[in-house]
Amino acid sequence: MFWLVLILSGALEAVWATALSASDGFRRPRPTALFGVSLVLSMAGLAWAMTGLPAGTAYAVWVGIGAVGTVLLAVARREERLDLARGLLLLVLVGCVAGLKAVA
C-alpha cells in the first residue's frame, strides 16, 4: 500500500509542477488552485509513504516519477519536444526508479 500511495503522490508532483508553470506566477486562479490542492495531496502522500518505506528511497522514487511525469505532460501539451536523447534518458530514469523499488 505504501508503494501505491507513493506512486500516486509522484504523479501528483507532476500535476502540481505543471499547474505551477501554468499559473503564470499565481496570476491565473484555476492553475493556482490546482497547484495548491495537488501540492498538499502529493506531500501528504509522500509523508505517509515514508512511514513505511526508507525516506531516501521514497523520496528518490517520488522525485523520479514526478520528473518523468512532468516532462511527459509537457510533451503531451506540446510545450516540449521529446527527441531520442531525452527519451533514452527518461527511460534510464524510469529504470533507476524501478530498480530502487526492486531492492527496497
From TrEMBL:
Source domain of life: Bacteria
Subcellular location: Cell membrane
Name of protein: Quaternary ammonium compound-resistance protein SugE
Keywords noted in UniProt: Cell membrane, Membrane, Transmembrane, Transmembrane helix, Transport
Membrane-related topology note: Multi-pass membrane protein
Coarse class of the protein's main subcellular location: membrane
Membrane-spanning ranges: 33-51, 58-78, 84-103
GO cellular component: plasma membrane
Keyword hit for Iron: no
GO molecular-function terms, A-Z: transmembrane transporter activity
Family: Belongs to the drug/metabolite transporter (DMT) superfamily. Small multidrug resistance (SMR) (TC 2.A.7.1) family.
UniProt keyword Cell membrane, yes or no: yes
A Pfam family of this chain: Multi_Drug_Res
